């Protein structure tokens, strides 16, 4: 599903070249639950951005769903983000003026679903993540764990084959974080490929495999 071959990424900052990723190679197979673990500044979030078609490498090759992302147009990258990949972030990124139901419907609006059909899909997903009684609540009326469940339901809206989660438990207490990771485990058992970026060994332990990153390099895979 995901293949990195000798991938490097650098940014130009104030006229200087700043390397972030250095000659990284790994493969993530369809249906895996993988964590990418490393300290702050190790390059793990940049890896996720490239996996999610939010950025492209400076050198090397990234294959996603069998296609080299370097050859994809902006529209094709946007289509992959909307239809094939679901994103979950540490700070939820919910829209405050929308109810939980409307937040989950949003990707379906962009995908052109009719109102009745997208409402039915969003209700089903919120029920799946245990929020059938919170559909009409706004984000400021939800706990952190409930917000993250809304974010996960939204990520699943277009039935993606890949979920990318960047520090998904970082804003949650330990018990709630465990609930969220158990939810990812259940989704993975249903066939969804899960990639979680984290600095927390307890979070990484839920994955079947961990890729360790330090100073922009893969230092181990267990």
UniProtKB/TrEMBL annotation:
InterPro entries: AAA+_ATPase, ABC_transporter-like_ATP-bd, ABC_transporter-like_CS, ABC_transpr_LolD-like, MacB-like_ATP-bd, P-loop_NTPase
GO terms, molecular function: ATP binding; ATP hydrolysis activity; transmembrane transporter activity
Residue intervals of the ABC transporter domain: 2-222
Keywords: ATP-binding, Nucleotide-binding, Transport
Domain of life: Bacteria
Gene3D superfamilies tied to this protein: P-loop containing nucleotide triphosphate hydrolases
GO annotations of cellular component type: membrane protein complex; plasma membrane
Record-given protein name: Macrolide ABC transporter ATP-binding protein
Species in which this protein is naturally found: Alicyclobacillus ferrooxydans
Organism phylogeny: Bacteria, Bacillati, Bacillota, Bacilli, Bacillales
